[in-house]
Every structure is written in C-alpha cells, then in structure tokens.
C-alpha cells in the first residue's frame, strides 16, 4: 500500500496532468480537486483502498487540519497492516485484536511510543470506527467502554500540565545570545555567523509578550499587524482565526515593545530576503496566491489562486494559504507573511525548530564562567515563552488585585469588580483556554517550591552546622571509646 497526500501545487510544479493542457487544469480542480493535505491510500495496483479513502474524504470535508489528517492516516495505515498480517481487516477485527495492536504499539514495535502518543493513536482509531459504524460496515466499535467518557482503548493516564517558564536573565540570554547572536555580556560578538538575528529576536519577543502559540505567531501576516500602512501602529490587536488552536477565534494584544523590535527586522533584514527571493518567487508564480487588492480595510484579500480570481477572509486563511500568499507591488512579489526565510516563503515548523536548536547550541557553548545563567537540562521550546507570559501576567494581575483591595480597605468590593478583575479569568481569555481548569494549573507555579524547600531545611544542612561526615566521625569515635578496655 502507498500513502499519498493531496497537493495541487505539486501538479503545477511537475507540469500538469497527462491528457490535460494547462488551461483545463483550473476547471478540473474547481470541480473535483481534493482538499490540500488530504490523505489518499492506494493499493499495489494503484486502486483506492476502501473504506479508508472515504474516511479521509470525510475528514477533509469536516475541515480537519492537515496535521491531524496526516497523523490519523499513518495510524490507520499501521492498524490496517497489523490486522492484515493476522489475516483480518477493519470489519472483522475484534476487541482482542485492537487491544493487541495497542500492546504492540506500546511494547513490541520496533519503535514504541509513549502513552501520550498512544492516546493520540486511540483517538484516530476511535474516529475511524465511528465512521465505519455510520457507514454500516460494522455494528459498533470492537471495544467496550469502561465508563462514561472513557474508552478502554485509551491509556487512562491523566497527564499534568508541564509548565517550564523562564526568569528574566534566562529570557534575555535566550533572546540576545541564542537568537540574536550577541555576546554573553550583551556586546557585539564578531564571531557570530548566524542567519537573520533581527528576525529571530523579534519572533522571540513577540512570542513572549503576546502568549501566542508557535503556530499562531509564526503564521502572522503583515496586514494583520498593520505593517502595510504608511503609518505603522505602536500597538495592535490581532484577531486570530484559522491559525489558532482548533480554529477557536480570539483577540491577541501586541504591545509596543514587540512592535519596536520588529522594526529592525522589517528595515534591515526582510527587504534583503525578499530581494534575493524574487527569482524563486517568479518561477513559482503559478503556485502562489497573488493578492491584487485589499478589501474591507484589510479584513479580506482578493487575488488569483490556481488560475481563479478569489476573495478570502484574512482570519479564515489557513497556514498553507498564508505561506503562498504574495502581493504584487510593481517592483516584484512581496510575501504577505511577517516572518520569512530563504525563497521568500513563510518558515515551516521544521524551519523554526532549526532556528531553536541552533540557538540552543550557541547558548550551551557560551554558558561557562561566573556570568552564565542557569540553563535547563533540555532545550527550551517556544511554548516555554507562552508559559512565561502566563505566569508573569498572572502574578502581576494577582498583586494588582490585592493592592486594589487594600486601597479600598475591603477584601472584596463588589461582585462585579471581583468577576471582571479576576486574574485567572483574564489570563484564560488572553491564552485562549477553552476551560478555566487549564488556567488553574498555573497557580501551583506562582511560587518556586524548590526555593521554599531550601529555606525550610537550610538550618538542617551542612551550612547550618555539622554535616553527615562530622556526625559519622563523632559516632565512630564514641564506638571506639566504648570498645576500649577499662
């Protein structure tokens, strides 16, 4: 079996479809083209493998993300191969067979997975069998429910929120030394040969001061920050849509400090990247979404996509469309993406990972001497900046609420003031958490428990008196004295 993923742009790159000329392609794609990233599973004789192909089609029609469809497709393919090796198929599999597949993935496969990864596989298998039930292929799921809202296929392990935040010195070291290429003392490092430090520092600052997830800030467009206007705003509210987690819309405030750090990148680095990418962009002209006009005060864009003139809402543009969106300026093609890499395209997740690991290697190589900051055992991830934003904002709002209560000389003024000024609710709204329970988990990190442990036992340690060696020598001396003849 062979697994493929739909890519209309690749058709243009390879020169079209046999039997069709270039003029006929847009019409064919408008009638029957699959959604971008939709999986297609073919047999050895290149026939669609059912019912999986129909399930993939339903996933795309339900607007599942490309990332989700890809993960589900690989899980379904592994399950199908596992069952076929036993002489079974999806319709004839029993509960024992599916549970054996779970055991194989967790314990016996060449590359086993963690329980967290298996739970994602279990979600894919559950979604597949729900589809098979609706289609009448099977009467019910092969496995039984343990209790309401829990399936016996999942691990049943409840994982705690992993929060790793930064102190100020750690953040500055990350931003300026790791991403920015400066020396550890903040001066210019003449040995630095990195690429686009202004872009990388600006992205780091934007992630920290907004609390956005990496898939949110890395896919921002210039138009969303008002950076196509002649007079650029000092601060701006951004309405997130298709690029937010699960597509849940929310508003994000980008403060002036983040906008200021973007200036160096926009003035010094981005024009150079765009200029060097013109030949690449021109060659890929047919694959791009060439925007010709901004509409509704920048809320919509109009341009040519796959040979058709279309209008798209900016908030509704997914990352794939944002990555190929360019603007015809008369002097060339200018990508609409804020952060771009070589070739003028928006950086992918793997591209930002390379930036992060390069920064980490630089940080660890220079983390020597008395001025070095304390680095974690494992590499920082971009989500740590979001955790730092959440904790710092929660601490600030909590202290502000306490100060307001003291000034009013009352533990609580009115119920309305308490509800509107609740720090947890404000942080929940800023982070876009669907449930307050997710935000509540940050409370335990408001104080560093390790520092409290050190203070609680400071008098018990060697610094406060005798250490273990002293005590041992004293006891040994007593035993020797007791054993001596009298």
Mean pLDDT value? 82
Structural class by secondary-structure content: alpha+beta
- Beta fraction: 5-15%
CATH T-level topology of the domain at 2-151: DNA polymerase, domain 1
- The oligomeric state of the chains shown is single chain
Q: Overall 3D geometry? A: globular
What composes the largest sheet? Answer: 5 strands, mixed
Helix content: 40-55%
- Spatial strand arrangement across the major sheet: 9-8-7-10-11
Protein name: Integrase SAM-like N-terminal domain-containing protein
Organism: Phytohabitans aurantiacus
InterPro entries: DNA_brk_join_enz, Integrase-like_cat_sf, Integrase_recombinase_N, Integrase_SAM-like_N, Tyrosine_recombinase_XerCD
Keywords: DNA recombination, DNA-binding
What's the topology here?
Layout: E1 2-5, H1 8-14, H2 25-32, E2 39-42, H3 52-61, H4 66-85, H5 95-108, H6 115-134, E3 145-147, E4 150-151, H7 168-179, H8 197-210, H9 214-217, E5 236-240, E6 250-254, H10 256-276, H11 278-283, E7 289-295, E8 300-305, E9 308-313, H12 319-323, E10 325-328, E11 333-335, H13 349-366, H14 383-407, H15 415-420, H16 423-431, H17 436-440, H18 449-456, H19 468-483
Parallel strand pairs: 7-10
Antiparallel strand pairs: 1-2, 3-4, 5-6, 7-8, 8-9, 10-11
């Amino acid at each position: 079996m062979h697994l493929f993923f739909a890519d209309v742009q690749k058709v243009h790159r390879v020169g079209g479809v046999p039997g069709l000329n270039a003029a006929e392609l847009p019409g064919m794609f408008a009638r029957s083209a699959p959604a971008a990233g939709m999986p297609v599973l073919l047999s050895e004789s290149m026939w669609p493998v059912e019912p999986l192909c129909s399930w993939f089609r339903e996933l795309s029609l339900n607007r599942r993300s490309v990332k989700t469809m890809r993960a589900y497709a690989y899980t379904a393919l592994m399950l199908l191969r596992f069952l076929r090796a036993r002489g079974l198929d999806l319709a004839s599999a029993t509960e024992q067979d599916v549970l054996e597949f779970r055991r194989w993935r967790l314990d016996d496969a060449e590359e086993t997975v963690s329980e967290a990864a298996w739970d994602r596989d279990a979600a894919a298998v559950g979604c597949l069998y729900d589809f098979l039930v609706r289609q009448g292929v099977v009467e019910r799921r092969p496995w039984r429910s343990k209790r309401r809202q829990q399936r016996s296929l999942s691990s049943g392990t409840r994982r705690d929120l992993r929060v790793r935040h930064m102190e100020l010195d750690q953040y500055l070291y990350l931003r300026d030394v790791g991403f920015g290429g400066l020396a550890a003392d903040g001066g210019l490092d003449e040995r630095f040969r990195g690429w686009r430090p202004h872009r990388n520092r600006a992205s780091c600052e934007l992630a920290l001061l907004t609390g956005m997830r990496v898939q949110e800030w890395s896919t921002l467009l210039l138009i969303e920050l008002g950076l196509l206007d002649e007079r650029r705003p000092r601060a701006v509210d951004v309405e997130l849509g298709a690029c937010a987690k699960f597509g849940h819309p929310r508003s994000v405030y980008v403060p002036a400090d983040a906008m200021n750090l973007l200036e160096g990148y926009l003035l010094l680095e981005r024009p150079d990247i765009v200029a060097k990418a013109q030949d690449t962009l021109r060659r890929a002209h047919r694959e791009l979404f060439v925007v010709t006009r901004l509409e509704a005060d920048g809320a919509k864009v109009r341009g040519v996509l796959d040979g058709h003139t279309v209008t798209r809402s900016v908030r509704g543009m997914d990352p794939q469309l944002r990555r190929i969106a360019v603007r015809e300026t008369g002097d060339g093609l200018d990508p609409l993406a804020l952060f771009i890499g070589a070739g003028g395209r928006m950086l992918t997740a793997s591209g930002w990972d390379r930036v992060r690991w390069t920064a980490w290697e630089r940080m660890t190589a220079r983390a020597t001497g008395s001025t070095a900051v304390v680095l974690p055992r494992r590499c920082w991830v971009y989500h740590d900046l979001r955790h730092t934003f959440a904790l710092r904002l929660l601490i600030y709002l909590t202290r502000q609420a306490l100060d307001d209560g003291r000034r009013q000389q009352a533990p609580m003024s009115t119920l309305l003031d308490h509800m509107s000024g609740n720090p947890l609710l404000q942080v929940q709204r800023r982070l876009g958490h669907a449930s307050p329970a997710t935000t509540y988990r940050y409370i335990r990190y408001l104080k560093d428990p390790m520092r409290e442990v050190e203070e609680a036992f400071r008098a018990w340690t060697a610094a406060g008196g005798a250490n273990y060696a002293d005590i041992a020598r004293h006891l040994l001396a007593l035993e020797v004295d007791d054993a001596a003849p009298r």
